[in-house]
Amino acid sequence: MAIIDISLPLDADTPTYKGNAKRRPKIERTRTLSEGANESRITLDAHTGTHVDAPFHMVEGGKTIDLFSLRYFHGLAEVVEVRGVEAVEESHLLPFKNRFSEAEFILIRTDNSYTDRNREDFIYLSQSGAEFLAQQGIKGVGIDSLGIERNQPGHPTHRALLGRDILVFEGLALEHAMPGRYFFRAYPLLIREGDGSPVRAFLESITP
Fold this sequence. Notes:
It is a single chain. The chain is mostly beta strands. The chain has one domain (about 5-205): Putative cyclase (Glucose Oxidase, domain 1). About 10% of the residues lie in helices and about 30% in strands. The strands form 3 sheets. It has a 7-stranded mixed barrel with strand order 4-10-9-7-5-11-12. Strand 9 (about 140-145), helix 3 and strand 10 (about 165-170) form a beta-alpha-beta unit. Helix 2 packs parallel to helix 3 (about 155-160).
């Protein structure tokens, strides 16, 4: 069984939403071996790097990340590729509909996987695309950008998914994940009343 790590590493160069430097992780050495042990402190925005959004992130009264059992963070996933577009619309996803019947997660690989993830004009999922995916009976949607939408007024993409308790996974490193069926795992930290959490996301190949 092959495992594909689809997580972004955390360091001073971690790409952030629209390149916002304030969102970059800070890793400080707080002790050294000469003091007894190497220890460090991490300052990390919950929505930096590879992470998951909980409904509470965008929905009034929405569920926080600690209220989802672990079964919501693994399952069969379909990786689809949509290239050469500014936004992933319903029309771009319709050709894959017959592959979504058994999928619990739909992960979208776009031109983001081949360009600078700090870019402000990243590819995002449109409201129509989100509404279409929300009808597929899935647990979550993932994308290879640091945001699933690009400051759309009212955040309709987030709301279409999170309003139905469909988790949103952002910052996925999908450049080495060929389109197809995998087993997906991306577990969050157990953050009380959290609006989101960093995750270590990976795909396991499925033998035909």
